[in-house]
Each structure stands twice: as structure tokens, then as C-alpha cells.
Amino acid sequence: VVSLPGRDSLGDADDRTIASRAADGDIRAFEILMRRYGSLMSAYAARIVSPSDTDDVVQETFITAWQDLPNLENLASVRNWLITIVTRKSVDRLRARRDQEPIEGRDIEDASDGPEEAAAAASLDEALSRVLSELPEDQRRCWVLREVSGYGYQQIADELGLPVSTVRGLLVRSRKTLVREMEAWR
Amino acid sequence: MNNTPDEPTTTPLEPGDLDGHTVESLSDYLDRGREPRDPSIESSPAAQNALAALSRLRAIAPRVLAADADHFAPENENWIKRILDQIGVQAHAGRDIPIPHDVPGAVLSISEGAVRSLVRDAGDATEGLIVERCRLDGDVETPDTPIDIHVVVSTFDGLDQAEITAEFSERVRDVLAEHTHLNIRDITVRVHDSDLSEEDGRAR
């Protein structure tokens, strides 16, 4: 018997193969998808919602993914599709929290430009990741929604319940901080 | 050496002067794809420098989110089990396929999802092939209706695809005959872009 890559384990198969099986109802394949992208989903959620909500958002993301996977046309793009879902779920969670909490509890006029230095990081990406994590949360959310998820200013303003002018200001501050760190690596 | 005392530390977005432009207006300009062309921006070294930095940052943004992902792994160790418990009750069962029997008053059936699972298992039992998707074409809810099975598979490189798919088709036919009463007509196996039916396999 010839030993073949992936012969004994689906875990080595590419995204399209795994996603196709999961779309066809194979829970084992879906579990592989969760192991493959659970941390990434968590990383996205953690940059938008509060730490105590992150696990719940990841859970909601995968449950929705399981339900909608049969309708996904380009199964090879499952990674980006999951990112779209986790962003949506995160924003929904923020909105729900905002509806629960009194508005005066929120600090939207955070004048901080963020931390001066990131902890020792092994790469530029990692250094920026840490700086991002340490940004004031409204700055971080705006930056992620704009630069990673491609939301427009008005859309971000609506989702976060902030004036557009505030969103613009928060983006400028987050960009300055991140560029400062990025340049330090050049 | 590299000692240049008193050199001010500036970054592209905070050079003190962006020739009258702001980070905000430059970001907007970048968002518009640098159209329409603004000579006052394009001719300003400081603005160009800032634009370049903003572009670089945007280009690496997705990587930044993924860079530290392991650090963000879900805290609850049982998170996968929690999700599996939830979705297990809503598995994609599909149509009910009746199983003829002689037991008065009983209704026996096998779900379409269970049939797809049998097809996947047949693939797992076939060397060098993984079943991706499986579709049952025909009125499975009416006994004896001819049913066509369409299966999409991946095969491993360097193997005889026709031979593998023929072996797989035969296995699918056997396993469905054993576990269902479906009247299977054609079994079509598609490997990526090339179609291979049982006939193709036998012809070799």
C-alpha cells in the first residue's frame, strides 16, 4: 500500500475540499474547519468586541457558517467568507451591548494616541498586531472595520453609534500610531 | 557610524508639515484610488511619503489581524464541542427516503444526508480519493424511481484517475444496494474539471 498525503486524515486536505464536505453535511469536516480557523475568528472578534464576548461571537460565527455553508458558491474562499461572518457577528454584538448600556458609560473622546512602543515582537506583523491590541477600543474597532473589513465611514458610524466626524478622527489617530510602529521596523 | 545627533524623529504621517494636506484628506485621496489626480498632492514629497505609508499599512492590514492569531485561541477548551453539540441537532438531513418493509403501521426511512454520508465513507475506503460533494438527482421519496448520483471528488496527484473513480463508483453502487432500496441508474464522478463516468472507467 502506497502512503499518500492525507490518505489517513482529512486534516491535510485543502480548504475547498474540507468546505465542500462540510457543506454536504460532514460534521467531521466542519470540525477540521473550526480547528483551522477558530483562532483567526477569535483574533478578529477580539479586536472588535470585549474579551468576555469573544468566545460567544466565535460560536455564533461557526453556527451560522454551518447553516449557510451549503449556499456558499466559492467554497475555496471559505476563509474570507468566515471573516465576513465574524465581523458581522462582532458588530451585531457591539450593537446589542450598546442598546443595553447607558450612553454616558462610553468614552468616545479618548484623546490618547495609544502606546508608544509595542512589546518585543518577532515580526512587523506581530508588532502591529500588538500595537493594535493596545489601541483605545474605539480606535481599534474603526481601524479594523475600515482597513481590514472595508466598511465605509458612514457604515462604521452607524454600526458603532458614533458621528462620522468622530470615526474619521479615530481613524487618523489609529493610523498615526500604527504607521509610527511600522516605520520603526524599516 | 550611525550617530546623527539631534536628528528629529518623524514619521510619514507626522512630519510636522504635509504641505497643507492632512492625514484625513490623504486617506480619502487613497480611498478614491488617487482619482481625480491632485497635483498639489502628487507633487509634494511629504504627501507622497504619507500616502506610501498609508498604502503599506493598508496592504498588510489583513496580515496584522492574523499575525498573532494563536494568542487569541478561544479560551474555553471545549469550544469545539459546544458548537458541535449545537449543530448536531440541525445536521443537513435533506429529504426522507422511504425504506419498503412489511411491518404494519411502521414508517421507515433513511435521510438523504445519511446516503451522502455512505458515499463519503465509500470514498474514504477508496485509496487516493476524497469525496467533496454528492447529489442525488431524482424523486427519492417515491420508491423505485431511477436515481442518478453525482459525486465531486479530489484525487491525489500521480494516480490513475479513471481506475480510482471506477473502483469508487462500484463501491458506491454496492454500499447503496446494501443499505438503501434506491433504484440507482447512473453514477457520475467528477474530478475537478474532468468528468469520469463508470463507462469511462470500464473502457480502459
Amino-to-carboxy terminus distance of chain A: 52 Å
Largest sheet of chain A: none
The helix/strand class of chain B is alpha+beta
Low-confidence stretches of chain A: 1-8, 107-118
Low-confidence stretches of chain B: 1-8, 193-204
Explain what the structure shows.
The complex is a heterodimer of chains A (186) and B (204). Chain A has helices at 15-23, 27-46, 51-68, 78-100, 124-134, 137-148, 153-160, 164-184. With 186 residues, chain A is mainly α. The radius of gyration of chain A is 19 Å and the shape is globular. Helices cover 66% and strands 0% of the residues of chain A. Chain A contains 8 helices and no strands. Chain B is of the alpha+beta class and 204 residues long. In chain B, the strands form 2 sheets. Chain B has a 4-stranded mixed sheet with strand order 3-4-5-6. Chain B has a two-stranded antiparallel ribbon with strand order 1-2. Chain B is elongated and about 90 Å long. Residues 1-8 and 193-204 of chain B have low confidence and may be disordered. At the A-B interface, helix 1, helix 2, helix 3, helix 5 and helix 6 of A face helix 1, helix 3, helix 4, helix 5 and strand 3 of B.
Secondary structure layout:
The complex is a heterodimer of chains A (186) and B (204).
Chain A: H1 15-23, H2 27-46, H3 51-68, H4 78-100, H5 124-134, H6 137-148, H7 153-160, H8 164-184
Helix pairs in contact in A: 1-2, 2-3, 2-4, 3-4, 5-8, 6-8, 7-8
Chain B: H1 23-31, H2 39-42, H3 45-67, H4 79-88, E1 96-98, E2 109-111, H5 112-124, E3 129-137, E4 146-155, H6 161-179, E5 183-191, E6 194-197, H7 198-203
Helix pairs in contact in B: 1-3, 5-6
